[in-house]
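Help! Submission page says 'invalid entity' but I think these are all valid:
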Amino acid sequence: QKKVTTHVLSEMKHNKEKIAMLTAYDYSLAKIVDQAGIDVILVGDSASNVMAGWETTLPITLDQMIYHGASVVRAVNRALVVVDLPFGTYQGNSKEALTSAIKIMKETAADSVKLEGGAEVVESVKRIISAGIPVMGHLGLTPQSIHKFGTYTVRAKQEEEAKKLIEDAHLLQEAGCFGIVLEKIPAKLAEQVAKELTIPIIGIGAGSGVDGQVLVLHDMLGINQEFSPRFLRRYHNLFAEITGAVSGYIEDVKSVDFPSDREQY
Ligand code: KIV
Ligand code: NA
């Protein structure tokens, strides 16, 4: 069971083997996901929504991301672990970005970091990579800019935004990113980017013409019922499973079915 490195991901693209990536934010689920054979685990700042219940990804702090990142890293043997740089910890300038990335690497022992944006962050990307830290890019619907977009709808449908996205993708590759996440953009555009670039392109709501897919673990497990964009395939209905288990427990406690004679000392 060989450890997945950025080099392995590059070979996978070369060999046309699709890359499977999921988020995780804690030790217990990261252990299951890693042992199931996932290639990449993203400690996403979607933890802000999924773990903490915030409306957006903006509130989560660097120390909170580090808590999640370190928890995941302690569970993982095989997958490559990517930790998101949260909002406000890299946009100021490239020195701030490097300081934040170094803090994540030192305090989580993760393999790499991810940040959102193209031309605006390319100096920061270069500086982080110069320090020996692998960086993944993220273009298209970048949730840290939700207040600029105003909506979580599909990005880059218009020619101007599509053109900038392609330019940004090239800039990130030239800066040395080992991969890029493309979120919620037309499949045709994502496929074009994946064809033009030599680094792996991982899609979420970006069609099948890319080099791999990523989903939020809790979404694909069906833990929440509210969030159902078109791109989300639910592999389980954990909401129903957990509701059933909890209801059964409540019933057993109330009826003194639990604990039984064999379940006590
Ligand atoms: O934070 C996250 O979960 C992400 C993925 C949706 C790519 O950035
Ligand atoms: Na994210």
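Support: the input was valid. A stray whitespace character was the problem, and the output above is from the cleaned input. The chain has a mean pLDDT of 98.
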